[in-house]
Amino acid sequence: MTATAPPVKDETPADERLLRTSPLQRLLGRPELGSVVGAVAVFVFFAIVADGFLRASSFGTVLYAASTIGIMAVPVALLMIGGEFDLSAGVMVTSAALISSMFSYQMTANVWAGVGVSLLVTLAFGVFNGVMLTRTKLPSFIITLGTFLMLTGLNLGLTKLISGTVSTKTIADMEGFASARALFASQFSVGGVDIKVTVLWWFGLVAVATWILLRTRFGNWIFAVGGGADAARAVGVPVRTTKIGLYMGVAFCAWVSGQHLLFSFDVVQSGEGVGNELIYIIAAVIGGCLITGGYGSAIGSAVGAFIFGMTSKGIVYAEWNPDWFKFFLGAMLLLATLLNHWVRKRAEATR
Amino acid sequence: MRAVRAVLATVLGVSLAATVAGCSATGGKRAEDARKAAAEGRSAVDTPRWTVAMVTHSGDGDTFWDIVQNGAKQAAVKDNINFLYAHSDEGQQQAQLVDSYIDKKVDGLIVTLAKPDAMKAAVARAVKAGIPVITVNSGSEQSKAFGALTHIGQDETIAGEAVGDELDQRGRKKALCVLHEQGNVGHEQRCGGVKKTFDGDLQNLYVDGTNMPDVQASIEAKLQTDRSIDAVVTLGAPFADAAAQAKKAAGSDAEIDTFDLNAKVAAGLKSGQLGFAVDQQPYLQGYEAVDLLWLYRYNADVLGGGRPVLTGPQIITEKDAAALAQFTERGTR
């Protein structure tokens, strides 16, 4: 018996970073994969149980609901990838709307002037959050909780002080209103379905954020500061600028969202927006962002917002008792996070 | 950092330029000032300066309670009363606020009993301390038992019943009741009242009142699902406008009706965009409460004969809207 030695395989591995991965593996490594699976599941579920969910006009409504959350979920997701939170994001939307409305009204100025001032002030809120965070080194939870409370109080106090009531006066009869409304709160028809312009804003923001994250140096910085701020600083990433920039991104989107609020209803209630910041964070987390930072995507946040829109409106279409809505939401948040976790583990194991 | 600064500078420049260049020739503060004739009140009596405190279950920034306060303040000016106001939508905190006013030894207390159980002990303490208490808005059933002088407000069930009757008269068959706060007893009573007298079918829809786009999208979704809905009843004035927009987007021809009034609702009634509004006259709830406490202090007067004094429901339609528009704009209706 002649023993032939088995052919010895070349066991010295090439550099693992240069390994070719199959397209499937690359797909499994995407942060938004879990949420896409979830979105398909939610869609199929409501398509079966809810009458009228599949109608074209319903799609427009669901998209609108998703877009108002999605516009804010994009910068919140980026911020979470960068390792921080913003609890002031919800009321900042209301602040942005109040500033535009009250500035235009009190100054009897063209509405666009108010919109410009609002952009400026809202960005300043973002800078405040960012600077406070990077200077004091306190956790973002504390800093933005402070901003959240201060803005809530300012919204009410200043509105009451300036307008004399808790809601703003109507600015619908002022110059510039029509053109501003066209930009922030109009709608158009695609194949007989009415689509709100917020959907375009949303898609645009997702596209820009995705480009920033994947194709620019700033995008790398975001992942770096989220993954480990000290390590990032050590290799020359400007951590401070990156974080301030991220908070300004949140402020910018809060401004967009606030202008939509103003120009679609033309009167703003000063007590609104409290609690929405959690909804944005939920959308980002369902979309695959890790709470610990360093991992996630803008497209994922959009999918998360879409799941949110489908669930909240699907329950109406299905004519279910809405007492259970928050329960569904919580269950979905847990499931999505578990699914994300599982998918990521598998992706890392097969690599 | 430099890029950030450049962006800020550009935005600042642009918006300043816009402000200087672009004044609006229509609307705005200038128009309001032109409309408004100054009418500052002076006290009409020379009784000592008593202090009256009001503690409500209002959330932050609620239009309705703003009007109540306006009424109370106006009466306070007239009656030479020092008026204090506090609110919390948490029952326990509302009771604590009442306690702190008792500690301050105010001369009169106005409270709401939206969460009667939480308020029972606090009202009892006030009565024991010799402070006259008047309940407003909610709590008509408990008011007397708790030891309050009078209750001033609208019975939510009766108001709902009035809406049901009005819907019947208008020949509506299927109505939607939009509740903007889950778990609010008054809201359930209103929709329950509508259900009692409405001959058609009534469905409840819960929406998130702090998120207007969501309110609109939810109503839109409902109207798309059920084409046979021919009336939508909202429980607060700000939500009527959202309902009107949802109706437009859903291509429905349902009639929009609402509880409570504001400038926008008055305009909507006038233009026929809204069917009718049920007003409980919040201004009267604040005004009468303060005035009655003054009357009690001055003359030991009590109103109502042990029964609630009703401030509503008053059904307001297109006919009345024109006359009320100016009052809604100054925030007293």
UniProtKB/TrEMBL annotation, chain A:
Domain of life: Bacteria
Subcellular location: Cell membrane
Single GO term (MF): transmembrane transporter activity
Alphabetized Pfam families for the sequence: BPD_transp_2 (PF02653)
Membrane topology: Multi-pass membrane protein
CDD domains, sorted: TM_PBP1_transp_AraH_like
Cellular component, GO, one term: plasma membrane
Alphabetical UniProt keywords: Cell inner membrane, Cell membrane, Membrane, Sugar transport, Transmembrane, Transmembrane helix, Transport
UniProt protein name: Xylose transport system permease protein XylH
Source species: Streptomyces ficellus
